[in-house]
Amino acid sequence: MPWMIEFTLFTILIVSAVVALGLRNLLAAVVTLNIFSFMSACVMVSLGAIDVAFTEAVVGAGAVGVFNIIAILLTSRKSVD
């Protein structure tokens, strides 16, 4: 049973990484990378590294995602001539 959970988590990790690389919308790519980070935290929980998983969830999925979204929203797609 535990191998099925880990297999599912690793499958979601690989799929989210491939999807994030293929997206053209930056905001959708950031959301997909947040999913990747949260799933890697879940993998760490399944491996028994609770403290590392908590740090990954807070920093990787939380703070970095928010900073990336703010940076995308503050930038403009128009060029200044």
From TrEMBL:
Transmembrane segments: 52-74
Keyword Membrane attached: yes
A GO CC term attached to the entry: plasma membrane
Record's subcellular location: Cell membrane
Gene3D superfamilies: NADH-ubiquinone/plastoquinone oxidoreductase chain 6, subunit NuoJ (1.20.120.1200)
Domain called MrpA C-terminal/MbhD: residue spans: 12-75
Membrane topology: Multi-pass membrane protein
InterPro entries reported in the protein's UniProt record: MrpA_C/MbhD, Nuo/plastoQ_OxRdtase_6_NuoJ
Keywords of the record: Cell membrane, Membrane, Transmembrane, Transmembrane helix
The protein's name in its UniProt record: MrpA C-terminal/MbhD domain-containing protein
Source organism of this protein record: Alkalidesulfovibrio alkalitolerans DSM 16529
